[in-house]
C-alpha cells in the first residue's frame, strides 16, 4: 500500500518524507488556499517545490476548470510542471471526458470527489490512474466510507480494472488501518493520522522499562 500526504504544507511534506514512508502528495484547491499561495506562477512553483521534496512520488494537482476544453488546457499546463504531476480531475461529465482524453494522451489522472461505486466504475473505464473516494466526508454524512472502499476494491478485482483506489478524506489513524484492510491501494492522509500510527501506550511503557534497565549495565 502506498502512503500519500494530503497537504500543500511544505514543512509537513518534508516531515513525512524524512520518516521514509512517503510515496506521494495530494493537494486540492482548499489545501492550496490554506497555504496562502496566490497567482498561477506562485501556485505552479509551489507544485514544483512539492515535487522536488518527494523526488520520485506522484503529486496530484487539481484543475479548477469545469468544461472539457478548459480542463484539457489547464491539465496540460499542470502536467508540464514536472513529470510526477498527476492531474486531478473532478467526477463530473466533462471531467470523465477529459480523463479519457488525458489517458489517450499519456497524462496520468486522479479522479476526485468520488462518493459511489458507480462513479468509481466510470473513472476506471475512462482510464484514471487513481480514483479518490472521500471516506471521511461519507462518514460525516452518516454513510459508511470504508464500506465504499471494500465495494470498489471488490468490483475492480472482479472486473480487472487497473485504476488504483486512493482513499482520501482520511480523518484518523483508524481510518488508515481500515482502508488498508478494505483493499485501498493508496491512502492519502493529513500528517497527524499518519503520526498517530506510531502511538501505543505499551510501546511507551516498554521503552521506559528498557531504558531504566539499561542503566544497570551501560
Ligand atoms: C484528497 O485528494 C482530497 O482532496 C482530500 O482528502 C479531501 O479531504 P477533506 O474531506 O478532509 O477535505
Automatic annotation (TrEMBL):
The organism's place on the tree of life at top rank: Bacteria
InterPro entries: Aldolase_TIM, TAL/FSA, Transaldolase_3B/F6P_aldolase, Transaldolase_AS, TSA/FSA_arc/bac
Molecular function (Gene Ontology), one example: aldehyde-lyase activity
Gene Ontology annotations for the cellular component aspect, listed alphabetically: cytoplasm
UniProt keywords, alphabetically: Cytoplasm, Schiff base
GO biological process: carbohydrate metabolic process; ketone catabolic process
Keyword Glycoprotein: no
Localization per record: Cytoplasm
Gene3D superfamilies xref list: Aldolase class I (3.20.20.70)
PROSITE patterns registered for this protein in UniProt: TRANSALDOLASE_1
Keyword Phosphoprotein tagged: no
PANTHER family found in the cross-reference section: FRUCTOSE-6-PHOSPHATE ALDOLASE 1-RELATED (PTHR10683:SF40), TRANSALDOLASE (PTHR10683)
Protein name: Transaldolase
Source organism: Dinghuibacter silviterrae
The organism's taxonomic lineage, starting at the top: Bacteria, Pseudomonadati, Bacteroidota, Chitinophagia, Chitinophagales
Amino acid at each position: 500500500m502506498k502512503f500519500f500526504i494530503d497537504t500543500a504544507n511544505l514543512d509537513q511534506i518534508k516531515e513525512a518524507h524524512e520518516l521514509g514512508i512517503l510515496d506521494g502528495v495530494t493537494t486540492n484547491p482548499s489545501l492550496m488556499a490554506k497555504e496562502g499561495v496566490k497567482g498561477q506562477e506562485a501556485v505552479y512553483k509551489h507544485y514544483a517545490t512539492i515535487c522536488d521534496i518527494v523526488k520520485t512520488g506522484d503529486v496530484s494537482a487539481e484543475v479548477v476548470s469545469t468544461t472539457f476544453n478548459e480542463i484539457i488546457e489547464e491539465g496540460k499546463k499542470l502536467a508540464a510542471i514536472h513529470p510526477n504531476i498527476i492531474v486531478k480531475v473532478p467526477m463530473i461529465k466533462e471531467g470523465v471526458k477529459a480523463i479519457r482524453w488525458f489517458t489517450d494522451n499519456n497524462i496520468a489522472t486522479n479522479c476526485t470527489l468520488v462518493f459511489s461505486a458507480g462513479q468509481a466504475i466510470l473513472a476506471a473505464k475512462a482510464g484514471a490512474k487513481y480514483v479518490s473516494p472521500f471516506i471521511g466526508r461519507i462518514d460525516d454524512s452518516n454513510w459508511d466510507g470504508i464500506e465504499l472502499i471494500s465495494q470498489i476494491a471488490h468490483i475492480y478485482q472482479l472486473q480487472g480494472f487497473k485504476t488504483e483506489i486512493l482513499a482520501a478524506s482520511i480523518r484518523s489513524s483508524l481510518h488508515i488501518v481500515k482502508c488498508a484492510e478494505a483493499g485501498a491501494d493508496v491512502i492519502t492522509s493529513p500528517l497527524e493520522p499518519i503520526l498517530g500510527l506510531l502511538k501505543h501506550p505499551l510501546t511507551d511503557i516498554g521503552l521506559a522499562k528498557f531504558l531504566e534497565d539499561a542503566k544497570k549495565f551501560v
